[in-house]
Amino acid sequence: MAIDDLWYLKKRNPDTKKFIPSKRHGRGKRWRVRYTDADNNDREKLFDLKRDAETFDLNCRSGVAAEVKVSREIGQLTFAQYAQRWQESRESGWSVETRRRVPQNLRKRLLPAFGEQSIRSITLTDVMAWLGRLLDDHTAKSSIGLYFGVLKTIMNAAVVDKVLDDNPCDGVNLSHVLRGMSRAPKWVPTEDQVLKLAGVVPRRFRAAIWLGAGEGLRIGEVLGMENSSRCMDVAAEELHVVQQLRHSREHFGGFYLAAPKSGSAGTVDLDAVVAEEVTAHVNEVGPVEFELPDITSDRRVTRPAALLFTTTRGKLITDRYWSELWEDWRSAADWPREGTFHSLRHFFATTLMSNGVEPQEVQHALRHASLRITLETYVHWLPKKDRPRGLIGQILRPAKGSRTGPTGDQDQH
């Protein structure tokens, strides 16, 4: 657990020796407390006053805060235990077919996946990973719908019983899942294919490839990158994705700067290798300054913007110009026709996901509006976790060895 001052960086001004104000200085709540909740998930809570943050932090550390407090019985309740209670309390009202189907679905599909987990620890990520495995195993879509329906019903009951605060199944768009994860990329390049592409792209545009593959930027966001702290702060290792380059002759007479797609502006970590490539680009190619309309805020302004990427004649890049360049590079790198600049964003996301980065962190890096979008797109790249064999037996063996009770010599009734 920790308390962070969001208004000041941890670095000091070398002249004044005072802490340097952050970009959030004077805006929003100042103090952040990071803690682990009752489900062992990392959380944070913001406060206006430091004393309130310190009180909450102390309550979390001592285990009295509601956010970290959970009864021992509920905290240790497994999915299998709750599912058994749920079944026993409801099966008297089931039809013959339901009495046959639900226990079978539980035994064959739900308990192997979730049975030994604490029911409070099951997350949206766990549910999406399970659905992804079912699809990978070519399970019939109608069967997946039935299995998911049983899981969601059990979790709903747990919410009503106040065992859970919310149902992780509520974040699943099953229709997307049953369409085979419709958001999933058609093609994702390998590391070697990305490096081969970077090798055939001229120096003038190579940093654009690194911004796509190393930061997950979209092409409009790359072409809108400025040589200023507005977009990149190398010292703080931050990349500020705040704009994209757009074109509308009708409304703006040509090029203009707009907010990123779907309000996905944000600050992400700046990879050291990407920073080196961009710095080399600035030194060897150099930015070109333009006067451009800027509608990234509520008020439209026209301002100078030193953009990193331009044509060989120092002009802004049109869609047609970029498409012609890309077709040549794709062909030279032996990429398939499905290989677009957006494929670099898919490479970025799947590399993070397959290397064990938490889906919430991947969502933040991609600036997706919701975790569901990230999971629906990249769930197939979640690392598969095999259930250890014999786990229940290992847990019960000590109890079995010390058990006392009726023996075979005693009367049996």
From TrEMBL:
Is this entry keyworded DNA-binding?
yes
Keywords for this protein: DNA recombination, DNA-binding
SUPFAM superfamilies reported for this sequence: DNA breaking-rejoining enzymes
Instruction: Point to the regions of Polar residues compositional bias.
Output: 404-413
Q: Which GO molecular function annotation, any one, does this entry have?
A: DNA binding
Per the record, the GO terms for biological process are: DNA integration; DNA recombination
Q: Where is this region: Disordered?
A: 394-413
Domain Tyr recombinase, residue spans:
183-393
Core-binding (CB) domain location: 77-159
Instruction: Please state which protein family the record places this protein in.
Output: Belongs to the 'phage' integrase family.
**Name of this chain's protein:** TraSA integrase
* Protein's organism: Micromonospora lupini str. Lupac 08
